[in-house]
Amino acid sequence: MKRICVFAGSSAGNDPVFIEKTKALGKRLAANNIELVYGGAKSGLMGVLADQVLDGGGKVTGIMPSHLFEKEIVHPYVTEMIEVGTMHERKAKMSELADGFIALPGGFGTFEELFETVSWAQIGLHTKPLALYNIAEYYTPLVQLIEHAIKAGFVPEDNRELFIDADDPSSLLNQMEQKK
């Protein structure tokens, strides 16, 4: 994999482990020469990850809709910043550029990006690996919900294989490499 799109919170959360583990992922991406594609903000886990990749000599591409340039703090040091018109264009561009996807802890925006990407995989719009970086078991309730949806007959059982769930960046990237 040459490029991974990471969905992440514009907040850092309230547990220092979120920052610590996000930095570990950034170091691993840079060490493996994997370019980061992300939302382009300087704040929260997004900014922590971008800073770490850049500090490690890696490349970072930010993608941000024009209307967010005023609301979000644009990361001033990304390798490339792509300005798009809408959130839909942002997600389409991220998907176009990425060889895989990772969801870090985040809020509604992260959830929305994650679920759209899973939905696209489910209907065959892409076959790229998708991973939940399950820092401090952040995504464990989501995994349990998905397993509940499978048992209830709303999600096909084989769709559980659409995403990887790991709490270690090396394991996460190795599993993604095996799925591509």
- Low-confidence stretches are none
What is the averaged pLDDT score? 94
Radius of gyration equals: 15 Å
**SSE pattern:** EHEHEHEHEHEHEH
Overall spatial form: globular
CATH arch. level architecture = 3-Layer(aba) Sandwich
Protein structure class: alpha/beta
- Major β-sheet profile: 7 strands, parallel
**Number of strand elements:** 7
Helix share bin: 40-55%
Main-sheet strand order equals: 4-3-2-1-5-6-7
- Under CATH, the topology can be stated as Rossmann fold
Percent range for β-strand residues: 15-25%
Report the oligomer. single chain
Summarize it.
The protein has 180 residues and is α/β, with parallel strands linked by helices. Helix content is 45%, strand content 17%. The chain has a single domain, classed as Rossmann fold, CATH 3.40.50.
How would you describe this protein?
The protein is of the alpha/beta class and 180 residues long. It has a single domain (3-179), classed as 3-Layer(aba) Sandwich (Rossmann fold). It is 45% helix and 17% strand. The protein contains seven helices and seven strands. It has a seven-stranded parallel beta sheet, with helices on both faces. Helix 1 packs parallel to helix 2 (44-55). It is globular. The model has no long low-confidence stretch (mean pLDDT 94).
List keywords for this structure.
180 residues; alpha/beta; Rossmann fold; 7-stranded parallel sheet; 7 helices
Helices and strands in order, then pairings?
Elements: E1 3-7, H1 16-31, E2 35-38, H2 44-55, E3 60-65, H3 68-71, E4 80-84, H4 87-97, E5 100-103, H5 108-122, E6 130-133, H6 140-151, E7 164-166, H7 169-179
Parallel strand pairs: 1-2, 1-5, 2-3, 3-4, 5-6, 6-7
Helix pairs in contact: 1-2
